[in-house]
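Purpose: get a first structural picture of the assembly so the mutagenesis plan has something to point at.
Setup: two entries, given in the order below. No constraints added.
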Amino acid sequence: MSTKTLAVAAVALAALAVTGTAHARDQIRIVGSSTVYPFSTAVAETFGKGGKFKTPVVESTGTGGGMRLFCSGVGENFPDITNASRRMTASEFEACTKNGVTGITEVVIGFDGIVFVNAKSGPKFALTREQMYKATAKDVVIGGKLTANPYKSWSDVDPSLPKEPILVYGPAPNHGTRDAYVELVLDPACEAQPEIKALDKDAKKKACNTVREDGAWVEVSENYTVIQQKITANPAAVGVITFSYLDQNADKIQGATVDGKVASFESIANGTYPVSRPLFFYVKKQHVAMIPGIKEYLAEFTSDKAWGKEGYLADKGLIAAPDAARKEQAANAKALGDMKM
Amino acid sequence: MTEMAQTTAAATRTAETVAARLGRRYAAERRFRALGLASILMSVAFLAILLGTIVQKGWTGFMQTQIALEVSFDPQVIDPDGGRDPLTLDTADYADLVRNAMAARLAPDADRNARRDLSSMVSTMAADQLRRMVTGNPALIGTKATVWLLASDKLDMVSKGQAPRQPGAVGNVLNDRQLAWLGALEEAGQTRKTFNTTFFTAGDSRAPEQAGIWGAVVGSFFSLAITLLVSFPLGVATAVYLEEFAPTNRWTDLIEVNINNLAAVPSVVFGLLGLAVFLNVFHLPRSSPVAGGLVLALICLPTIIIAGRAALKAVPPSIRQAAAGLGASPLQIVSHHVLPLAMPGMLTGTILGMARALGETAPLLMIGMVAFIVDIPKSPLDPSAVLPVQIYLWAGSSERAFVEKTSAAIMVLLLFLVSMNMVAIILRKKFERRW
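Result (structure tokens, whole complex):
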């Protein structure tokens, strides 16, 4: 009996292996940022409902992880599109080129704000970028000297802030949101100080790009839901998340004002809210002829009914780019323009 | 006399110490029992809390809200030139019919913004519903009919009491106008809650009211079928060889130790192995149940082998000796006598291993099965998710209506696990032989 099943299994396996290699992919594969994931999946689903193509498969791997997969080669075992919540870096672009990925089209899909939130039941925060830097950077300048961050409670940072211990839940370093936090909050506030300005480039980077490791900043590598659960359990704790997540959960959490500005669709779109960044996706041009539907997927994503001011992505929390910028990006996506570093 | 007094005194002392010691021993006994009972009660309480919160959060996920609307199948919208061409019927703007029907019932002179508000109360699936009705029966065009349409996730949440419904409340998911419309519909009996069949027939979706677990169930089925197909024969053959044929020497000892170690290796390690071997070397399709099933088979194998060997050990040697005495060859002894007697135990081990495989997510992350996949897989080569992955993905979604869907999916997964364990127990009870 066991020999018979064994033989059957062997035959089945062999058959699978054979069909496996002969099976050409007819479905778009997308990887990348967890911030872009909700938008990318919404477009993928609508695209799939059109009925002409299969629904693309979207994996949420984080911006960095997506870039690694995307840049590892050309062929149907590699993804066609990667989502990113920051621009592709020069080293990633080089890695792509080295592995034969030579034509890449870059599309800016809109904007997202980074918000500092806490539970509705907690105190209201009115923060500035400088205060966030002082509360979360590993080393701060006190009396002209770079010292380990001594601030224990928000009121130590600034008397106007609540007398609550500093506890910030933020995304782990594999998230694009974390990169953006460093780039948009820590760096500008840090480099504005004369003592830091005097340092050379490497020392500057080291002084400005590191978050606290003494427990005041807690890294969450899973997803925003986990951050939300942590901050609702502790109303004085602050979470660093994206605006689209706040928008969907505004009944449980509230956003702090940053430099006096409330995060909203309008303030992020017109640039008055200071912590916002563009979102991207990248298309492998060599795959357009190989995998059916890529051009049509791009057309769906760049149509006004998707990414427009009143499109279905706006319902998911995407902040639309200005009309002229959208038009330009859509034309570029249609022509599959090459990106340049 | 003094001697006797001494002995009695000693005896009393002994009796006293014995009694005291006995008291202590009884107390220790009672403490031990109380501790045992307390720990059992605590585990039961934790289990009750866990199941309680899941059921309490998730049972509403099996219900969905529908709205009754009088839809007028306007020929101007569906088929303006009257040709009844199937393609025209298929691509007509059915969402417009839904908006018109909502406007006609609730706000006949609605402006553009009001029409947007109206249409966001109904699921986008409603348009598909009407499309199916019309393409199935073109005679509907030009008539009016009352149709139960699927409500949007936001209306669903308000109607189930999971979102505030006072106008002006903080964190409203529907605006005041929409709340008033909902009130009007409810008063007229035009809303109802029905069993959520979509949940059991659809694949994943970004719209919570359209999301279902069928894609994940099919994916889990394919993966487990592959796992069973690969790990059961391999596991049984290994167990039989090691137990019945292999000589006992340093090599077999080494193999045994390694198998026991493998059973304790964290599952994510098998995922990395799967990525390196099945995807990068054999080029199996990413995110497919074939790759997932093979990885899960690796995870199951040690369990099956260990359970199989235990089952073989439990077969009394007298059976082997009797068969040998009648002239059976070693192969005949094993295949005619030992294996059939050990099979119930082996099957139990296999089912328990499979139940573990059913709940795994971590190794599947590595081979790309943690992904948004809408289409229901048709073969083990199509990309698909599995049940625990679907739960993980929904748990991380920002749309609040996914909370109940997550718990509902957990209930379904637990049901599968409980029934698999039940089968294992029944098999053991029914076929187990005692010597």
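The first helix of chain A runs from residue 2 to 22.
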